[in-house]
Every structure is written in structure tokens, then in C-alpha cells.
Design goal:
By secondary structure, the protein is α+β, with helices and mostly antiparallel strands. Helix content is about 55%, strand content about 20%.
Length: about 425
């Protein structure tokens, strides 16, 4: 009896086991099919994605090769393009000569220029071998010097151009432009130690020449001299350090460098005295000759003869058609930094064709206080005139020319009507 029960239980278990195996086989088969399908689907997706990436890489590689080919084809023009791009960038980003942020940036540029000059020459003489941290970045020092020199000259061109009249003191702006282009184009020449010395003197003197008036609230030849002395002392200290460290080894080189600094100081002082350097930090925002003026709220309403359609940019009277009873109105808008006090004069000149020279007619002096973003505004009107060429100058103390307006007066019988108007 026990054997029959055991046999039945055994048979029942065997049967159940067989069913379980069949079920497991069916499940495995179905699952395997699903896994195979999933694998195929995943593989297909991976294949498509990989092919897409390969195609993109091929496209990007072709585009890269085109860009690379274009670059090497026109690589010789790259310094000029970089120069103009940097100049445009500074024109839009450098807003006011007395803005703290702008002056801090320029001060940082000056510090970096002097630092890279020192490090470049120490490396050239093998004097950085004992300092692995500085030696690690030695390849970047000449490029850094060139980059920040270009940045400083670009900024100076913007600020000094804003202060230059379209006359003789544009010469100094031309000098700055030449230096900026030279830094970009003739990079190899910057390895000359004496050229580096001259560049350092020029950029430091130009910086302090407009920083001192901003800090002290006045302008003058004495401040320009102090700026030159301060920058000259700074550059001579660097030159003396070079002599002490072994960058230069002969007494003749030491004295030659000091003489070069003094020569540049004297040359810049002479240019300033001859009124060939713009009167930074002053800058002329607007100047023109008009038939009428009146104040409307916070603006000046200036009347002038409408220009022909092909001179759509003209918003002043050039030439000036003068009828009996008319008045000539000279208008100037002059920007001066916050806190700067300066005496400026409006001077009228008429060209005498018989004597072939300019004749001084009259002058008016006023004292301005800086700080107005759109500039200090002033009008000087004149009722009596003569036909011919006229010039109105705006000058600061020490006969520093800020700007001028040249125009021709033509006599007419009837007043100009109607007038166009310009608000400033």
C-alpha cells in the first residue's frame, strides 16, 4: 500500500515536472524571440545613429577643411582684419574716458604689458630656468605682450580720436594708429629690446596723460609733464632691473636705454607744447553753424538751411547764406569728465584774401564744469559778417585746440525760409 502511494506520487510529480519543462521551453522560446527582435531593433537604431554621426563628422570635416583652406589662403590679411575688429570692439565697448571700469581695464592692460615685457626678456636670457611655474608658460609671454600692446593702442586711438579736431592734432592719433598697426603686422620686430622700451614709455605716458586730469579735476602742461616723469621713472626702473638681472650687461646699454626714455619724454612734451596732441580728457561731441537757436526744455533747437537730398547727413549751415538781419550761431557740445573745471574760449576768424591770412575777429571765454553725458553746450552768435571763408575755434587754456568749424559765408537778399531744425 505504501509502495502504491509512493508510486502514484512519483508519477504525479514526474508528470508535473514534464509540464513545467514544456512551459519553460515555451516561455524561453517566446522570450528569446522577443530578445532577438529587441536586439535587432537596437542594433538597427545604433547603426542608423552611428551612420548619422559618421555623416556629420564627414560634413564637419569637409567644412573644417574649407575653413582651414580659406584661412591659409587669406592668412596674410589676418593681422589687418584683427586690427579693425579690435578697433571696432573698443569703439563700442569703451564709452567714457572717466568711467572707472574702463580705466581699471586699461590699467590692467598696462600692468600686463610691462609684466610680459619683463618675463619675455628674462626667458630669452634663460633666467627663468630656476622657476618652473613661470617657465611653463614661457611660450605665451611674447604673444601676451603683443596682444595687450595692441589693445592699449586701440583704446588710445578711440579716446584720443574723440578729443582730436580734424586739423593738426590728428597727427598724434595717426602716430597711435601706426603703432597699433605695427604691433599687429610686425610681430617679429617686437623682440627688439629697445623697441619694447619705447613702446612701454609711449603707452604708459599716454595712459597717465589723461588719468591725471581726471583724478585732479584740471588740465595743464604741468600735468602732462608729471605724467611723462612718472611713466619715465617706471620704465627706467624696469630697465635698471634688466641690468641688475643680467638681461643687459654693458653700461653702454644701460645709458642708451635711459637716453631713449628721456628722448621720448622730450619729444612728447614738445608735441604737446606745439598743440599736436589732442586735449584729453576733453572731447567734442558736436559742432556746427546755424541760423537760429532756442532752448526747448533740456534741449537746444537749432535752425539751419535744409540741405539738398544728396547731402542727407548735413545738419548745419555750410555754406551760410547771410541776409541782412541774420545772425550766425556757433554751437558746441563738449564732453568733460565729472569734476573737471576748465576755461574754454570761442574764437572767430575771417580769411583776408588781400593779405592772404586769417584775421582774428573776436573771442568769448566761459568756464565749464564736466559731468554731463551728452556734453556741456554753448552758443556764440554774431550779427555782423563779411562774405568769404570763416573759422570758429573752441580752445582750452594754454591755447589747446579742442575743435573747429570751417564754413563759407555767401550774401543773399532774402532770409532763408523755411528752416530745418536739429535738437541737441
Amino acid at each position: 500500500m505504501d509502495k502504491e502511494r509512493v508510486s502514484k506520487v512519483f508519477e504525479k510529480g514526474k508528470k508535473s515536472l514534464g509540464q513545467t519543462k514544456d512551459e519553460l521551453a515555451t516561455i524561453a522560446k517566446e522570450t528569446g524571440g522577443v530578445l532577438v527582435d529587441k536586439a535587432k531593433e537596437t542594433g538597427l537604431k545604433l547603426g542608423v545613429q552611428t551612420q548619422g554621426r559618421v555623416n556629420r563628422l564627414r560634413t564637419e570635416n569637409r567644412q573644417f577643411k574649407r575653413v582651414e583652406s580659406f584661412y591659409w589662403r587669406y592668412q596674410k590679411y589676418q593681422p589687418v582684419l584683427t586690427f579693425f575688429a579690435g578697433f571696432l570692439w573698443d569703439s563700442f565697448t569703451l564709452t567714457r574716458i572717466d568711467r572707472l571700469r574702463d580705466n581699471l581695464i586699461l590699467a590692467l592692460y598696462l600692468i600686463l604689458v610691462l609684466s610680459f615685457v619683463i618675463l619675455s626678456n628674462l626667458q630669452a636670457k634663460g633666467l627663468l630656468a630656476k622657476n618652473p611655474r613661470l617657465l611653463k608658460y614661457a611660450d605665451y609671454y611674447p604673444a601676451g605682450m603683443q596682444f595687450f600692446l595692441g589693445s592699449l593702442f586701440s583704446a588710445y586711438v578711440v579716446f584720443y580720436f574723440q578729443s582730436a579736431s580734424f586739423s593738426k592734432n590728428l597727427l598724434f592719433v595717426g602716430l597711435l594708429v601706426s603703432m597699433m598697426v605695427a604691433v599687429e603686422v610686425f610681430k617679429r620686430r617686437l623682440g627688439n629690446l629697445y623697441l619694447q622700451l619705447a613702446m612701454c614709455q609711449l603707452v604708459s605716458h599716454s595712459f597717465f596723460a589723461f588719468l591725471f586730469p581726471i583724478l585732479l579735476g584740471r588740465m595743464g602742461y604741468d600735468l602732462f609733464l608729471w605724467a611723462g616723469l612718472f611713466s619715465g621713472l617706471l620704465v627706467i626702473l624696469i630697465w635698471a632691473f634688466f641690468f641688475q638681472a643680467g638681461v643687459i650687461t654693458r653700461d653702454k646699454e644701460l645709458y642708451l636705454g635711459i637716453g631713449l626714455v628721456l628722448l621720448m619724454f622730450s619729444g612728447l612734451a614738445g608735441l604737446y607744447r606745439a598743440n599736436l596732441i589732442p586735449p584729453v580728457p576733453l572731447s567734442l561731441k558736436h559742432a556746427g553753424i546755424y541760423h537760429s537757436w532756442e532752448i526747448k526744455g533740456d534741449q537746444y533747437k537749432l535752425g539751419f538751411e535744409p540741405a539738398p537730398w544728396y547731402q542727407f547727413w548735413r545738419e548745419s549751415d555750410r555754406p551760410f547764406h547771410y541776409a541782412p538781419g541774420d545772425q550766425m550761431v556757433a554751437f558746441f557740445a563738449l564732453y568733460a569728465p565729472i569734476g573737471l573745471v576748465e576755461e574754454v574760449s570761442t574764437r572767430w576768424f575771417w580769411y583776408d584774401t588781400i593779405q592772404a591770412q586769417w584775421v582774428f575777429i573776436e573771442q568769448r571765454k566761459v568756464t565749464i564744469i564736466g559731468g554731463r553725458p551728452s556734453g556741456w553746450r554753448n552758443v556764440h552768435q554774431k550779427t555782423k559778417t563779411e562774405p568769404g571763408q570763416w573759422r570758429v575755434e573752441l580752445v582750452a587754456r594754454e591755447n589747446r585746440l579742442i575743435g573747429e568749424v570751417n564754413f563759407e559765408v555767401k550774401l543773399v537778399n532774402q532770409p532763408v525760409s523755411p528752416l530745418a531744425y536739429h535738437l541737441h
